[in-house]
Amino acid sequence: MKSFKTLIALVAVATFSLTVSAQLKIGHINSQELMASMPETDSAQKKLEQVALEHDNILEEMSVELNKKYEDYLKKLQDTANPMSELVRANKESELQELQERMQTFQQNAEQDIQRQRMALFQPIQEKAIKAVNDVAAENGFTYILDIGAGAVVYTAPGAEDILPLVKNKLGILE
Length: 175
Fold this sequence. Notes:
The structure is a single chain. The protein is mainly α. The protein has one domain (25-171). The protein has helices at 2-23, 31-37, 39-78, 86-139, 164-171; strands at residues 26-29, 144-147, 161-162. Strands 2-1-3 form a three-stranded parallel beta sheet.
């Protein structure tokens, strides 16, 4: 009697498992490939590169100024005919240090600015991609979509459905 109940329980669990697994529809997508194929990504990347170039130009100007002032300081320091007074030397060294600190502050602020701009430029693109993936998943009855571009999926069966072409089509991206 006990083994019969166990057998019935096993059959019920197996039937439930088969029913649940038959209802699951799992697809996958490479989000990095999707993002790279979106035309908005190129224009956002170009804007970001332009901002970075502007920052680099300003930093280069500051560096040229620092180098010029340092060379001038060294020349005056080595001039034995007209030696610098202690006050002038201390002032020049302070000026050099302040310029170097301004450069470091600018560089840190520039990096933060680029991060903010990256977020502002790419967030709408990511949201558009996520919406398209969600729409395709809902329209095609998928239960789960795995992102193989994130590196979290260890195995994808040969018959697994790649929804990248469907999402690209949804976004109007031609192959």
